[in-house]
Each structure stands twice: as structure tokens, then as C-alpha cells.
Amino acid sequence: FLKAKSLTSNLEQFLKAGQGWKSPDYVYTNQFWPMDSASTFGAKGHDIKFGTEAMMESKDYHLPCSDDGQLHNCFFGMNFEVDFELTDDYVGPLNYYFFGDDDMWVFLEDPEGNTQLICDIGGVHQAAGEYVDLWNYIEKPQGTTSKSDSETERPKEKYKLKFFYTERGASGSTCWMQFTLPSVNAVPVIDYTGGVKNTLTVNKEINGNVIDRAFDFKIEFEGEKPGVATNKYTYQIREKEKDENGNVIKDENGKDKEVIVKTDSIHSGGIFQLKHGQIIEVFGLPDKTKYTITEADYPEYKPGVGEGSTGQITANETVEGNINWKEDDLVHYINNEIPYELPETGGSGMELYTIAGALCLVFGAGFLYRKKFRERRA
Q1: SS3 state at 209
Q2: If I label 126, which of 31, 33, 38, 88 is the partner at 20 to 30 A Cα–Cα?
Q3: Residue 178 to residues 8, 66, 100: CA-CA distances in angstroms?
Q4: Structurally, what CATH architecture does the domain formed by 200-337 represent?
Q5: How far apart are CA 311 and CA 324, in angstroms?
Q6: What CA–CA distances, in Å, run from 149 to 6, 35, 142, 152, 153?
Q7: pLDDT tens digits in sequence order for the chain, 378 residues long
Q8: Across-strand partners of 255?
């Protein structure tokens, strides 16, 4: 029987539980209690801690006992997304497996943006399983695409899976899933509520000769909340979408269209790269988190920040600031190209060389006159 504390890792391990009920019945669970580590767990104004036998028998509460007889932070939900690319030569499986409680809904979004429900386990219930073969909902791309260099390219189609999960059974929590997908990437879920925007945006601009070059930046985080410096934060790098002639493409509202260049995660002390015109947006940063961004030293450029930036330059290449959920947190990095100048040597300048050149002309003319005069006498 399960005796260990709740788990937020090793979720593939299922253990026997149920002794908290004083019953011969038992269940297998991976003890999915991610909110037990929340700083507000049991705090005033938040859900109380419950799950022990004492809380169940209390005349004041009479709350249900948990599977393992321990206190837990119940009633929570989560949602996330992944995308994957499918080509006409992929013949492998497209599988999704789920086992858990309570509600789980999975939606599939096709390349045109149409969405359909492919997994629906609703209601409060014991852990249940579901298997989905995505080939039942997807048509394999066909044909090839011609490129400008006369080569051909296999067609690619991008799909998204959107997951919505809630735990509201108040006694046990199990959540395990697995999928087999090609070229899969995590997609940041942007859900601004109540005027809260927990992101940091950094963009890059070069004044001067623009070259196709990636510039290195180091980002660091500090804060009062636990895990600020060790957590990984999802980010996206975007740039404006252009046509084959290099012109920025507009959407139906006349705004510049953007394309996602990269999606990844970063922690304090991590390095990211930006080219001219690119933007990075880091998601999920706690309120009042202090950030420090340091660009690598490039002697041919003078660094600066543009109008509207919330951060402040503390050194030549370093910007510091604090996340404020009530406003946009933006750092606009501008690199001004330093014009090349000949070094000053402390010499006499060009005047001496001008005088010397003039004397050479005078002496040369006199030399030529004497030579012509001798030839006439001869």
C-alpha cells in the first residue's frame, strides 16, 4: 500500500492505495497532486487542507478521506497544448492514451483551424482509461511542393492537440497520459485574466548596417516565491512574416503578420538568441519577479533601450526590471552601429604630407627644365 508523500514526478509509477477509507477496497493511483506545493495551500481565503481520518470524522467539517489518508490540495484544473507536423512519408502511429480522473477533454485542431473533440471523459468518477487513434481524424498530406531551386519539398501539415483537465473528486487524484506524435512541440497557453499579463517581451533592433546575425542574451530571474530561479519558463521567438520579395505580409486588419521561429523553455541563467526584428516572449513569470538581461559584448555596436521599455540599463549591455502583472513588461534592445574611424596617432596630420607633395612637384619641374635646356645647347 502507498505510504509515500504525494508525487509530482515519476507519474508513470502506480501504487496501491485506499487504506484511508478503512475498507478492503483499493485503487491504483500515481498520486497527482501538483497543487500541494502551492504557497497558498491552506492559507486564509483558500481551500482548507483535508484528507485525513480526523478531518473526515470532524463534526465541523466531515470532509472525505483521501486515498492515502493524507492532507491534499484538491479542486484544481490545467490546460496545455502541443503541436506536431505531419508529412506524406510518415507511416508511424498517432496514438493518445489517458488514464485518470476526473474530467478530461482533448481537442484536435487541423491546419485550417477547425477543432473537433476526440476524447471526452466527463464527470466525477474513479480513474478511467481512454485510447484515441488520431489516424481516424486525420488525412495524410499528399503530393509534393516545388521550390525555387527546382527541387521538391514534401508537404507538411501542422496540427494541435488541446488538453483540458479538472480534478474535483476531493478524495483521489490520478492523471497519466502518453502520446506518439512526430515533430511535437509544446505550445504556450496564453490566458490573460483579470488584467494579469505574466509575460516578459524582448525585441531586437539594429540601427545601421543590418546583417543576418544572431545576438546572444543571458536572462536571470530572482524572486520571493519558491522555485523562481530554478523553474523552466516556456518562450516563443517570433518575427514578421514576409513574402518572396521581402515585403511584410499584412492580415485582414492591416496588421503585420508574425510567424513563430522557435518554441522552447528557459531557466535563470539560460541563453537565448535574437536577430534583427525578432521578438522573444517568456511566459508564466510570477508577479514582482526581478529579471536581468545581459547582451554579449559586440564592440561594433553601442547598446541601448528604446522608448516604452520598462527595464533600466544598469551597465553597458545589461537591463534590469521587475515583472508587473498589471502592465506590459517590455525591453526594446537597440544596437547602434559605431561608424569606423581611422585611429588618432598624435602625428602632424595631413599638412606635412601636402607640403612635401608640393615641394616634390617644384623640384620635379626644375629638374625637367634643366634637362630640356641642356638638350637645346647640345
Answers
A1: coil
A2: 38
A3: 16, 26, 12
A4: Sandwich (2.60)
A5: 11
A6: 57, 54, 21, 9, 11
A7: 444 444 567 888 888 876 555 666 778 888 899 888 887 888 888 888 898 888 888 777 788 888 888 899 999 999 989 999 998 888 899 999 999 988 999 999 999 889 999 999 988 888 899 999 999 999 877 765 545 555 566 678 889 999 999 998 888 899 999 999 998 887 877 665 555 567 899 999 988 888 889 999 999 999 887 788 888 888 999 999 999 898 999 988 899 999 989 988 899 999 999 999 999 999 888 888 999 999 998 888 888 888 778 888 887 788 999 988 877 788 988 888 887 665 565 555 555 445 555 555 545 545 444 444 444 454
A8: none
Residues of the chain with CATH 2.60.40.1140: 200-337
Question: Nearest Cα to 56, choosing from 42, 67, 40, 41?
Answer: 67
Those residues whose C-beta lies under 8 Å from the C-beta of residue 292, and which sit 6 or more positions away, are 219, 220, 221, 222, 318, 319, 320
Backbone angles phi, psi at 257, to 5 degrees: -80, 145
Rounded Cα distance, 210 and 35, in Å: 48
215 neighbors 295 (Cβ within 8 angstroms): yes
**CA-CA-CA-CA torsion for 61, 62, 65, 71, nearest 10 degrees?**
10
SS3 for 202? strand
| Cα–Cα dist 87/198, whole Å | 35
Q: Looking only at Cα atoms, what is the longest distance across the chain?
A: 140
Which pTM value belongs to this model?
Answer: 0.65
Identify the residue whose cell numbers are 492537440.
161
Report the distance separating Cα 296 and Cα 293, nearest Å: 10
- Tell me which H or E stretch contains 129: strand 128-133
Q: What is the DSSP letter of 346?
A: -
